[in-house]
Amino acid sequence: MKSICVFAGSSYGARPSYRETARQLGEYMGTHGYRLVYGGSKTGLMGEVANAALAHGGEVVGIMPSGLAKGEIVHTALTEYIEVDSMHERKAMMHSLADGYIALPGGFGTFEELFEALCWSQIGIHQHPIGLLNVDGYYDLLIKMVEHSMKEGFAPPTNMSLMSISATPHELIHSMSDYLPPNGQLKWQPKNNQR
Length: 195
Known about the structure:
It holds the Pfam family Lysine_decarbox. By secondary structure, this protein is an alpha/beta fold. It has a single domain (3-177), classed as Rossmann fold, CATH 3.40.50.450. It has seven helices and seven strands. Helix 2 (44-55) links the parallel strand 2 (35-38) and strand 3 (60-65).
């Protein structure tokens, strides 16, 4: 795993720890030779992780749709900036350049990107590690929701093993480096109670 796609808020969030952890992630990636692939913004946690990676010698690739580039502040100091036509093209390119994913705290966009990566892992489109950077318990309720979906019969117990979870960047990346995809679990299993 040498190229990590990071999903993160384009805002800074309510806690200083979110911003600080984004910086720590970027620093760790830069100093350890991981390429950062992300959404291309200069603002929020997205900008923090990119700036820290660049400051520590990292390669940073930003990808942004032309429509969003007018509203968001585009990072102009990246190793590579790619402008695409749509959100779908942005996500497809991010996925094609990554061999691992990390979600920092964020909102709907971050959740959507995270769950797409998880869904694609679940159905076998990729077998890359996926990490939740659970800063100050930010993702605790999301983890409970995933556990609830298993309890209610909408997801197999192996789904939890699709995610590595940690509060610190170095522990998370170390855990992701040891990731092995679950074997033998198909998404669609015949149900005994089907008629």
